[in-house]
């Protein structure tokens, strides 16, 4: 069993146009490859809701603000295709750099507000790169549905804002973060962790959920964050970029979980940057943490 791999927009269009003509519902799952169970859960969800599923694989240089990070990003196309084939995804669209950004490419899609703060502060230009490539992928595939993981929670908000603002005819479907059995949020970057770092890594989710419990019990964010940062650092993390409480629906900053909220974190473990987030949901004046599903 194999999956067709398409390299050019022209070929993509020639395959997808008849799908659209026949009224089939087309879904896209944008990825940068190094596929893990999180990506596969998006593909499975897409297959349930659409007639045709295109998985895209493009390590988008425009969203890396750091050349070393781009160079180190895992590239495992062969394995990725092998993981997708048995699921029944219909196409792997894997263009190269010049196909996506031909000579003279000069357009940037930039989403103000939502792209600022959190990862936007520490990765300047990152969300412009994401918004630009995702717009292209939506237009190239003409997808009716697009699937994104909640793990990249700010990205999900940026894409939703962009789709609303530009009237892009695509419905964004969010899927829950998938975690390893020890709680570590799945990420292509986990492949870069040494075995010692991999052992330390699940501490982050543990601390995040414990902090969310405190917020759920009504603690003011600033009171619990100082201690949480210390615990993260003493668990072996090199740096905490941010630890913030934001509103679930519009990412506005919160001082306490008095409405449906997200606790978001970005850290460095050695030279690997990891992000994670958990939902904190208020209930009768306090908030209730939604615990991670084993595969969510
Ligand atoms: O989440 C990712 O892997 C990337 O940001 C995306 C959405 C595929 C755009 O390059």
Strand content: 15-25%
CATH class of the largest domain: Alpha Beta
Q: How would you state the average pLDDT, rounded?
A: 95
Low-confidence regions: none
Biggest pleated sheet:
6 strands, parallel
Number of domains: 2
**How far is the first residue's CA from the last residue's CA?**
27 Å
If you consult CATH, what is the topology of the largest domain? Rossmann fold
Shape: globular
Architecture (CATH level 2) name of the largest domain: 3-Layer(aba) Sandwich
CATH fourth-tier homologous superfamily of the largest domain: HUPs
Order of helices and strands: EHEHEHHEHHHEHEHHHEEEE
Helix content class: 25-40%
Side-by-side strand order of the widest sheet: 1-4-3-2-5-6
Number of strands: 10
Number of continuous helical runs: 11
Bound molecules: pantoate
Task: Briefly note the structural class of the backbone.
Answer: alpha/beta
Rounded Rg: 19 Å
């Amino acid at each position: 069993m194999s999956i067709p791999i398409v390299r050019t927009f022209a070929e993509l269009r020639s395959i997808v146009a008849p799908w659209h003509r026949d009224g089939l519902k087309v879904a896209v799952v944008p990825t940068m490859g190094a596929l893990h169970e999180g990506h596969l859960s998006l593909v499975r969800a897409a297959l349930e809701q659409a007639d045709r599923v295109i998985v895209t694989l493009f390590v988008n240089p425009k969203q890396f603000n750091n050349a070393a990070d781009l160079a180190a990003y895992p590239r495992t196309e062969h394995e990725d295709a092998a993981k997708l084939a048995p699921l029944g995804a219909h196409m792997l669209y894997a263009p190269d750099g010049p196909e996506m950004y031909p000579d003279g490419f000069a357009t940037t899609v930039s989403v103000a507000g939502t792209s600022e703060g959190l990862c936007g502060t520490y990765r300047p230009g990152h969300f412009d790169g994401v918004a630009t490539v995702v717009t292209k992928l939506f237009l190239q595939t003409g997808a009716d549905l697009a699937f994104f993981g909640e793990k990249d929670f700010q990205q999900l908000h940026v894409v939703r804002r962009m789709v609303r603002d530009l009237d892009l005819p695509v419905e964004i479907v969010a899927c829950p973060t998938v975690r390893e059995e020890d709680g570590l949020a799945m990420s292509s970057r986990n492949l870069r962790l040494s075995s010692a770092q991999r052992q330390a890594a699940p501490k982050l989710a543990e601390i995040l959920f414990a902090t969310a419990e405190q917020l759920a019990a009504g603690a003011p964010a600033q009171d619990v964050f100082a201690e949480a940062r210390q615990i993260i650092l003493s668990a072996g993390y090199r740096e905490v970029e941010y630890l913030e409480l934001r509103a679930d629906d519009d990412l506005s900053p919160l001082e306490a979980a008095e409405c449906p909220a997200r606790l978001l974190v970005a850290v460095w473990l050695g030279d690997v940057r990891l992000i994670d987030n958990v939902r904190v949901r208020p209930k009768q004046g306090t908030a209730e943490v939604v615990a991670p599903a084993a595969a969510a």
